[in-house]
Amino acid sequence: MNRRYARHLPFIGAEDGNITIFSTLMTVLMLMLAGASVDFMRHEASRVRLQTTLDRAVLAAADLDQEQQPADVVADYVAKAGLADYLTGVHIDQNFHERVVTATAGADLDTMFIHIAGHDSLMAQALSTAEERIANVEISLVLDISGSMRWNDRMTNMKPAAKGFVEKVMTDNSGGVTTLNLIPFAGSVNPGDTMFEYLRGERPRIKGNNGWGNGDQDAPGGSLCNNNAENADEGAADPACGGDGTAPEGYFTAWTQAISNMVFYFDTDGDDIFDVAHKVEAFPEGASRDADDFLAAFVAFVIAQDPQLTDPGQFLGASVKGGTQKAAYFQVKGDENGPSYDLGPTKNRGRIPGDTFSYASIEQAHWTPFYTDPNEGLVQDVAEEAETIRVNMPSSCVEIPDSDFAATAMPGSRDYVPHFQHWAIDPEVMDWGWCPEDDTAIQYYSSDADHLMQFIEGIRMHDGTGAQYGMKYALSLLDPNTRDDVAYLIGQGLVDPAYLGRPIDWHDPETEKFIVVMTDGMVTDQIRPNDPRAPINGVEELLEQSNPDYHVQSTAGHNVQNLYAQCTLAQSLGVTVFTIAFETDDTAAEQMRLCASSDSHFFRVEGAEIIDAFDTIARQINNLRLIQ
To answer: Where does the sequence pass through the membrane (predicted)?
Structure first.
């Protein structure tokens, strides 16, 4: 280089200041990076706070039990967090069973450092959506109504507990998605008259019902003529005994004490099984004790009061109650045994499916001419009548064989559970029968909480403890193969058409199935009278009869194994089983514990604790049916 030129560039060869420039540039860059981190951290902290608040707000707003307007709930949550100015929108999608809440929020955050790079603010945004919908729920509630429930106020405590359960699971929001089968059980379970016919149950015919006297067919010497202690009048009329074949006049035996009330039974659907009954009570002490004296007036009167009764042939028979003598039923339509009691309904206490009238309100002289005997026009050939007139029974239970407990289908037996009482009855709180009467039959696929609670309130106890039958029906009514049965019930007007297609498939992702079983005792033997059609079975407990004639159809231990078979099937199919042992001994409690889905689904309670048990189960069901 020319030295003269170099003199004009004094620093061209110096290098000691370069590091200072580099350091300055790097320092500025690091400060910008550190500052940006601070800005971004502030931004993220604001965004997280906004998002968290929004998440809580939409979850609360989506709650179907939330009574406030969803938008107001979101706004209130955000305002209380001090973020009201940042809420930008709330969108609600809602129907009867579902609510979806979406909320957005945004905030401009002034930057402290990256504004150097031209970014004066950062936008913190949040979007949150919450959904709550009620899944389809199918519940079978199985209630013990055995005679032991009368002890220690058990029934008194059970009724409000069960009604509270119904009220909690059948809310305003559950209509259309939650159905409940209510299954009362005593010695057996009554599917009801309609389902009895559908299940092909065969009722005994009237000829078998109308035995002589008290139905004892084992008279000395094997002849009815020798059974004079019970049926001298009938035997004397029998040509085989030397009589002239003339049946005794009238349908009723004179009552030994003053009559207190009578119940008259009518058939409105042509199956010879009563579905309407009207009571006449408040008989004066001096009234005749032979019901034949006022039968015509009373029947004509009650027919005139009921628009359902249009044909004299609808009248079937009547039961009588008075004093300490047990109520007895007397057949009129198709009667062949004269004034001897028959096997049939004796609903002189508790609820009746009809109205109640006072003796004094019936002007007998006026109404008697309006009576028409229901036997007019009937075929008089006894053999033919036996094929057309069936026993007028108050209950409709079918037998369930062992093979049915290995499956979940509805019972398919054609056999009828006889009408009888084994242990002592308390007529103040119990109705007669091992099989609950038709007014205590299964209530199917209901979403009507008021109806179910009224039904529970009116339940009366019956004889025996057949929890295995209750469990069998409970599971069958959750089986999707029962859809044809439901369609039939809909056609009969017993189930809302909205539930066509139920039960829903097993393991359906949007369906929860539950069984709740309550009992106060061990599963019992299954008892059956050897002469199931003997009229005495309708008025005398088997153990009280002078010559008890019955057998054990299946032992308690065998019945417990059938119960466990159904419990195991239920759990394998995804059904949650809750059980309640109510004031039971250890053996009965263990039966319920082993049936439950787990120990946490089993409750052993005393007294009013049953209310808490049902309440806890209802809350668990409500929680499990929510999908978010």
So the answer is: 20-41
Angstrom distance (rounded) from CA 396 to CA 182? 16
Give the tens place of pLDDT for each residue, 181-227: 999 999 999 999 999 989 887 777 654 444 433 444 444 344 445 44
Burial 565-587 (b: 16+ CB within 10 A, else e): bbbebbbeeebbbbbbbbbbeee
Compute φ and ψ for 435, nearest 5 degrees: -95, 125
CB neighbours of residue 372 within 10 Å: 15
Cβ atoms of 457 and 159 within 8 Å: the answer is yes
d(CA 457, CA 557): 32
Whole-angstrom distance, CA of residue 200 vs CA of residue 394: 17
Cα distance from N-terminal residue to C-terminal residue, the chain: 83
- From CA 291, how far away is CA 250, in angstroms rounded? 9
Buried b (16+ CB within 10 A) or exposed e, 154-174: bbebbbbbbbbbbebbbeebb
- Alpha helices, DSSP H only, in 186-267? 193-198, 206-209, 228-237
Instruction: State how far the Cα of 183 lies from the Cα of 470, in Å rounded to an integer.
Output: 6
pLDDT, tens digit, 9 for 90 and up, residues 484-516? 999 999 999 999 999 999 999 999 988 999 999
CA dihedral 114, 115, 117, 121 (to 10 degrees): 80
φ, ψ at 370 (rounded to 5°): -85, 0
Query: Can you read off the two tokens belonging to residue 256?
Result: 């030994």
For tokens 């299964």, the residue is 442
Burial class (CB in 10 A: 0-12, 13-18, 19+), 239: exposed
Helix (H) or strand (E) holding 476: helix 467-476
List helix spans (H) across 543-608: 556-572, 586-595
Tell me if residue 599 falls in helix, strand or coil.
helix
> What does the angle CA 191 – CA 192 – CA 197 come to, to the nearest 5 degrees?
95
Burial class (CB in 10 A: 0-12, 13-18, 19+), 14: exposed
What tokens were used for 48? 């997280």
Among 313, 306, 345, CA closest to 193:
345
The DSSP output letter for 548 is: -
Extract the tokens encoding 212: 């002589």
Number of neighbouring beta carbons within 10 Å of residue 199: 17
Cα–Cα distance between 582 and 577 in angstroms, integer? 16
pTM over 0.90: no
In a 3-state reduction of DSSP, which class is residue 544? Answer: helix
Two tokens at 327? 């109520």
Asked if 400 and 469 count as a contact pair (C-beta separation under 8 A), the reply is yes
Token reading at 224: 């009815």
